[in-house]
Amino acid sequence: MFRAEADGLRELRSANAIRVPEVVACGVAGNESYIEIERLAFDRPTPATEQALGEQLAELHRHTADQFGWFRDNTIGLTPQKNTQSDNWIDFFREHRLGFQLELAAANGYGDRVTDLGQALSDRLQDFFSAYEPVPSLLHGDLWGGNWGSVDSQPVIFDPAVYYGDRESDIAMTMLFGGFGQSFYAAYQRCWPMAAGHERRLKLYQLYHVLNHLNLFGSSYIQQAAGLMRELR
């Protein structure tokens, strides 16, 4: 997990779009694994910091690859995240994002609440992309409010779950738990406006993270997950 995080931080840094902590070391000492990253002193974000974050995230998303996925698997929280590379975003999302989380949910005892809803949604994924074809953008992958900060009034992102996918996935995660102000969204829209139909797709991408929280933290997320699937269906 730490090796994957180190590779993810390096991948984000290579885009030269937004500040990312430098990886100092990663390895095993005795019976324990470790990762050491650059120490940063955070200050309080301002609307100007949030504006810069929106601008720089759009620049990060313009860093693209030939395929969706990534050269290695990693984790989203403590959950394995499969990144098998694919030319087709719908197939990738169906199998390695929605499908994988639904399989975990069934194994965790929630199948009677989510399997049928999830299958019905999976069968109709193409409906969300009838007039939209995403490009494989470099994604942070887990961009909630606790995974970004301000250093010298400039944004910095960390603790990623990197892969190449639809840029709307990152935006969807920012909206799920808060922590991003209007200056951020306005700046992102100015730099790279969202495509038509993004409101529905944002909910689809939020479902991935809600299902992951269901699998990590338990049944308190079951109603939110099932409700999202009913709405999307």
Structure overview:
- It contains eight helices and eight strands, in the order αββαββααββββαααα.
- By secondary structure, it is an alpha+beta fold.
- It has one domain (41-232): Aminoglycoside phosphotransferase (APH), C-terminal lobe (Aminoglycoside 3'-phosphotransferase, Chain: A, domain 2), CATH 3.90.1200.10.
- The protein has a two-stranded antiparallel sheet with strand order 1-2.
- The mean pLDDT is 97.
Q: What Rg, in angstroms, do the CA atoms define?
A: 18 Å
Assembly state (oligomeric): single chain
CATH domain topology: Aminoglycoside 3'-phosphotransferase, Chain: A, domain 2
Query: For the largest beta sheet, what order do the strands appear in spatially?
Result: 1-2
Order of helices and strands: HEEHEEHHEEEEHHHH
